[in-house]
Amino acid sequence: MSVPASTEARGGQAARREHILDAAEACFVRNGFHRATMQDLAREAAMSPGNFYRYFESKEALVVGLVERERERGAQLVEEMERSGDRRGALLDIIARYFVSITREAAVLRLEIWSEATRNPAIAALTARTEAETRDWFVATFSALAISPDCDPDRLYALVAPLMKGIVVGRAILPDYDPGPAVTQLHALLETGLDGLLPRAARAGPRITTLA
Amino acid sequence: MSVPASTEARGGQAARREHILDAAEACFVRNGFHRATMQDLAREAAMSPGNFYRYFESKEALVVGLVERERERGAQLVEEMERSGDRRGALLDIIARYFVSITREAAVLRLEIWSEATRNPAIAALTARTEAETRDWFVATFSALAISPDCDPDRLYALVAPLMKGIVVGRAILPDYDPGPAVTQLHALLETGLDGLLPRAARAGPRITTLA
DNA sequence: CACGTGTCAATGAACGTTCGTTCTCGTGGA
DNA sequence: TCCACGAGAACGAACGTTCATTGACACGTG
Question: How far is CA B155 from CA B36, B110, B114, in A?
């Protein structure tokens, strides 16, 4: 509930914003963007409602700020792993940290963002950017890690992406969801795909010759 | 915007409720549960706001009614296909109709329901029921269709479910999402699983011997 | 037919509440 | 003194909901 106050030397503004976003995150996870009131946020942030407006133009700006922060966190996470050198390790770590050991709270927030993206243009734009960046990173990583020239990075991502999203949804809405099997599946899919062993797209219908 | 009025011979109450739910569905898809106002619904349904309360106790009861109807539609769809005799065909049809050729509007509504389920107990209960019913049906169908005794229906569903959910999310948030590749993947997964050719769960880590 | 009566879907203005936002004032350090 | 920061009362708007009233229709009676 309380925050050390100074994250930077002259860190008034930025640290305050972070503090507010933390409080907002907790409230939004609990009640959603539209049912959480400014008074709720005020209580959670231990500050008066009027004071928010020194740091954010409006409630919506606050929501946008939160979504923007989530996007930055994702990009940041990727960057860290890039620096670790081992790209294959980075790939597996990303999957483990971002889509498997994800907390229920984070999953709920992500679900709320997706939902809001379907009707709020500002959120839609940010979400589209996140999706594009994620996609680009995965495709680039697939290309770099591909063992066989038969590997089709675009196609592989088209298979992997919905699986990851589905894991997030499951975590958010099912009390004791176990992502284990889906993750195993995810890894199998990645290795199969990187080895260029994925079946070709079917011609007429969805029926295909299948694996093995 | 207008409705033929008489769906049943003496179909006052039920038909009226359906009419209201139709209007509510349109508004909720457009603005979400909490931003859509009763006046919006009134405009869409071409009736006065006060009149809603003859058919639903409150706005929340209206939301619950809508979610309940969605659940019934799912169960109904399954029932129809069961009657068609061909269980394998039913399985593929379910997938095609419910998770692939799903309209953007339906996907958005589903996303909204999932999101609401994370904080509204009534919706959470309905959603849990839907999830359980869906799961039971798939597991039963897998058991009936399994070619090899090595097929593990529970495990297979754990792989298939997040993929389907992810397709819905993609449809809802990505303007021109193509579910094709994911569906192909889904079918491959089903056939592999039914043939009992899925890799066993990994022991120590997520790294597995993979398919083929 | 004409008329009084009851029923019921439907209205839409009005209500109390609650929301996001603004305003005024106080305080503490430079 | 000045200014950045903050508290919290107050504001107008908009919300979900209520309620007195309306209009259309069906009947039973003269």
Answer: 40, 24, 23
